[in-house]
Amino acid sequence: xxxxxxxxxxxxxxxxxxxxxxxxxxxxxxxxxxxxxxxxxxxxxxxxxxxxxxxxxxxxxxxxxxxxxxxxxxxxxxxxxxxxxxxxxxxxxxxxxxxxxxxxxxxxxxxxxxxxxxxxxxxxxxxxxxxxxxxxxxxxxxxxxxxxxxxxxxxxxxxxxxxxxxxxxxxxxxxxxxxxxxxxxxxxxxxxxxxxxxxxxxxxxxxxxxxxxxxxxxxxxxxxxxxxxxxxxxxxxxxxxxxxxxxxxxxxxxxxxxxxxxxxxxxxxxxxxxxxxxxxxxxxxxxxxxxxxxxxxxxxxxxxxxxxxxxxxxxxxxxxxxxxxxxxxxxxxxxxxxx
Length: 339
Ligand SMILES: [Mg+2]
Hints:
- Helices cover 59% and strands 1% of the residues.
- It is mainly α and 339 residues long.
- The chain has a single domain, classed as ADP-ribosylglycohydrolase fold (Orthogonal Bundle), CATH 1.10.4080.10.
- A hairpin with a 7-residue loop joins strand 1 (225-226) and strand 2 (234-235).
- It is globular, with a radius of gyration of 18 Å.
- It binds magnesium ion (MG).
- Magnesium ion (MG) binds next to helix 5 and helix 17.
């Protein structure tokens, strides 16, 4: 990962990216517990269940979803119930790459991303564009689309599981992000997702203090972006992650305020509020996320990953309907978790 970091950081710094925060040491602010297989399986199943539950609702407005709520996996994209989408397929591709290479190695990851993106259901635009450039031989540190879409964040969970130290998680999450999303806020959101998985999977508290630590871990990386819905206000992932603390306990208000579209400035803070409102009630949290409107599969998938990291697979299983576990990705998750 060191050589990849040097290559990417040199190129991005020449374009004015401030990567200083990623060079600083970062420690867990609590005594980390051991990572268990239960937390690994919980995280990966959580990602897949949220994805499969939210996918039939993707792109629909909240009012419409709440008028006809679902409580089980349903067919979508002309595929049977339990089919997962890009959120899960790319998460599992990243997990496999890290386990095979023992680190974050773009040369190993790129062909896996190309393969997963070409087979997946309902893939994202920015990832498809980047994958097309990679397929034609573009260098991995130059190929990414300049987009603050959700694609880099939604697949980042395995980084939080398979790297132990927070500064290594941060750099690995950054590197895997820019391969498809060459954008500072997309990278910041991938870092936040990976670090939060790492935090929860090692016994960190499911409380608002996590938000301030996560925001501090990416401070200075971003250039403020104009939100699509609040055009006058320029926003960063770091700022919005801190702001999410004001909405814990009021997810409906959070959806109104942050919105739920396929854009990191919307999905990530909304998902954080859902999880922190119901960390011990996974069925409630996942259904809420899957009915939030717009990018429901990514929203529920992020929430699912954190629930699984926090609760582990046994508690997650005992507190959710058994038919939710019939996700198509189950054999792949079992294979990865046993390694
Ligand atoms: Mg998706």
